[in-house]
Amino acid sequence: MINLNPFIHVKYYSRILDGPRQMQKKTITICFLVLIMLAGCKTSTNQEENKVSVATLRGPSAISMIKMIDSLKTLDKQDVKFKIKNEPVQVRPLLFREKADFAVLPTNMASILYNKGVNYKIAAIPVWGTLYLFGEEKISNWQSLKGKTIHLMAKGMTPDIMFRYLLTQHGIDPIKDVNLDYSYPTHIELANAVASGKAKIGVISEPLVSMVMHKNKKVNPIFSLNEEWKKKTNREIPQTALLVNKKLASENPALVDAFLSEYKKSVQWVNINQKSAAKLIVKHEILNNEEVAAQSIPRCNIRFKQVSETKSQVHEYLEIFYKMNPETIGGKLPDEDFYYK
C-alpha cells in the first residue's frame, strides 16, 4: 500500500518498575514531585489563560493559515498556539471542553456541535469546496456513472451527502443506479486504495487528490464537486468554517477581529505566493512534497470570507443537508446566534 500520510507517527513508551526495596524511596520522591506540581498549578493556569489557542486540520484548513502557523507568534500581546489535528473528531473534544479559542471544522459539523450546545459561533468561511470525483476510469458525464462502483470515505459525512445530492440532481438514484462503497472509512485509506488501483473511482479531498496523482499517473480528476455544485445551485460550497468561542467573542471582540484580519492576510498570501507557501506546508509537516503542495493549492479553493458576507450561502448549504438528512446538521437549522456578528 502507498503510504500517503508519512507525518502520522505512533510512539510507545515503557518503564521498568523498581523492586520492593525501592518502593519507600520512590513513594517519598513521588510525593515531593506532586507537591511541586501543585505549587506550580496557578502559574501554569495563568500561562494557559494568556494564550490564544487555534485548532485546525491537516489539509486545506492548515494550508489556508500556513503563513500564520509559521509567523504569527503573538496577537494582542498574547502568545498564539496552533494545534494541527488529522481528523475533525480530534478537534471536537477541544470544543466540548472549550480548550480552543478558534477552530476550523466542516461547516455541517459546526452546525451539529452548535445544536448540541457547544459554545462556538461561525465567524468565517476559508475553504470553498475541495472534493473531487477522481480515479482511473474514463467518465465523460454523470450518466456514465450508472452501474459503476464509487467509493466514499464515510456514510453520512460531507462527501457522501454532497455526492448523493449531485447524483439526484442529475437524475441518478444513489441506491438503484450506482453502487456506493464505504469500505475505506478515512480519506487516507481511500486515497491509498485509489493510488494502488484497488478503488477505480472515489470522492476525495485535496490535497490527497494531488498526492494520489503524483503517485499514480493513471489517476485524473473526473468532476470537481464544487463546480458541479455551482451548476446546480448557483452557489459555491462553504465547506469549511472558522469557529470562535462565544465567551471570547463577547469579551474581546477586538482580538477576534485582529485574528480574522491575520487569517485573511494568510489566505491572500498563500494564493499569491504558492511556491513559498509550499515550502512552509512541507516545513510544518502538512505535506512532504513541495511540488505536490504547490499543485494542490489552486484546487483547495482557499478564499477568506467573513460570515457576514456569506451567511445566506451557509444557510442554503445547511438547508440542503437538512433536506437530505436532518441529522447531518444536528437535527435542525441553527438559529441567528450561530453566526458571529
Explained architecture:
- Helices cover 46% and strands 18% of the residues.
- It is α/β, with parallel strands linked by helices and 341 residues long.
- Strands 2-3-1-4-11-5-12 form a seven-stranded mixed beta sheet, sandwiched between helices.
- Strand 7, helix 7 and strand 8 form a beta-alpha-beta unit.
- Helix 8 packs parallel to helix 9, helix 9 packs across helix 14 and helix 13 crosses helix 14.
- The chain is globular and about 60 Å long.
- About 13% of the residues have low confidence.
**How would you sum up the global shape?**
globular
Strand order in the largest sheet: 2-3-1-4-11-5-12
The major beta sheet can be summarized as: 7 strands, mixed
Overall pLDDT metric: 86
Q: What is the number of strand segments?
A: 12
> Termini distance?
47 Å
Strand content: 15-25%
Q: What's the order of the H and E elements?
A: HHEHHEEHEHEEEHEHEHEHEHHHHEH
Structural class: alpha/beta
The count of helical stretches stands at 15
Low-confidence stretches: 5-47
Question: Percentage of helical residues?
Answer: 40-55%
C-alpha Rg (nearest Å): 22 Å
How would you briefly describe this protein structure?
The protein is α/β, with parallel strands linked by helices and 341 residues long.
